[in-house]
Amino acid sequence: MFGPGWKWARGRGTKQLPIVVCAVVALGTAVLGRAHAPIFDTARAAISDWTAPALDTLRGPLTSIQGWAAGFGGIFTTYSDNAELRRENAELHKWQQVALSLEDRLRGYQQLLNAVPDEKTPFITARVIGESSRPFVKTLILNAGSVQGVDKGQAVVDERGLLGRIYVTGEKTSWVILLTDLNSRVPVVVEPSHRRAILVGDNTPAPQLELDVGEGPIRPGDRVISTGDGGLLPPDVPIGVVTGTGTAARVVLFATSSTADAVNILDYRVPNPPTAPEPVAAASASSRLAVGSTAPPVPAIAPVAPDTRDIPEELDR
Amino acid sequence: MTDRSPLLFLLFAGPVRLAGRLIPVLIALALVVVANLPISFTGGLLPAPVLALAAIYFWALARPALMPPYAVLVIGLAEDLVSGGPPGLWATGFLAGYVLIDRQRKNLGELNGPGNLVAFTGVMLISAITAYVLASAIYMRLLPLPPLLLEGIVTVALYPLLERPLDWADRSITRFLRSG
Q1: What pLDDT was estimated at residue A305?
Q2: Residue range(s) defining the domain that contains residue B35
Q3: Does B103 sit within 8 Å of A32, measured CB to CB?
Q4: What's the burial of B97, exposed, middle or buried (CB within 10 Å: 0-12/13-18/19+)?
Q5: Structural domains of chain A, ranges and CATH numbers in brackets
């Protein structure tokens, strides 16, 4: 096919100018998109807001067809599935009793210690109206936006675990960057070693686990949960289990986008650190400082240094 | 045309001709929308194809005047915007494929059947490689290749199905422009 007649045609002076100009514009857009992503994100949010009703209408019947098609394949394995489910059910009954007993004991200890109960994270429930699975991006589109209180950075979970985070919000829709996406980096904890790590998406179904500080063995089958470090995500949200070891460690996720339908968007806020009553002198000094100061405001989760002002010298060691 | 009223011609013929000339670009943009409908017909098993490249390839060969580089740029930017990926990625990829078509127009135009499919595969490959290199530069790391390869395979597999409707649209445009 590609015989000696095939030659690379040479550029013909000014006739090639449009291609060169277009290539420069395209490359410039790539650079601009990297530097000022919000310009394009706003346009995307506007498009998804505009098309949301149509997507919502389209997705309903299609999800039903997908469910039906998936169910059809299961007809032939019904007997073995049933036997497996009975076995699992019996085992889970046993674990349920253990969990209930441990829950009672934990409640008792918390009362004894007068422990502060965990705060409930408020959430917004939304439906998935779209999914984009391209080589360079993995996203979901939800039918809730800034009008419903959705904000950039909020965690998105379903009944199985963490799916991703909100990265674009329109008025009525929002886009979720999935844990598998190239841009996703989430701080996590591996249990039971409590080793900190970063979960890095690379567009494969199982994201990489980049081990961070600390020591402790990581074994296949270890649970991975979110950490509240950095105030990005609520702590203890289930994410997945480890597969592989060392630098090849990856995480098989509990929640996958292909089966996600109704999701919760967690409105997690880092709890304010408790404020101790300040001595009058110190308080007036700090207020004087605040009036004339141009220093930046203290972040909400600033590390709190031990206050040693009122400790007698002989005790301050 | 000469027997018609010059006023009517000025009022309608110009816009009608322009609309006719825009049809290839509009079809390519429609394919961008269809390919990027955020709904997976395979339950997420296969990636969405780059259908717009089929329209670009077809008209860049058949009627280069109706698929100029500016149109390819607009189609590529639309693909980037709707797919949610980094902007400029497919715009650059499509233009790279367009350069190959532009340089080999004489040879590619003579192909048909399997030869044409092989040529489209080459254009898809050039576009995908360009997008891959640019994406790796943007993210500052080497990205996994299999998802992109799979997307290319799905696109090439769908090209024969698209070729006939595109050919029909092309003949309709010809009739439309001649009648105008």
Answers
A1: 38
A2: 6-179
A3: no
A4: buried
A5: 123-266 (2.40.10.340)
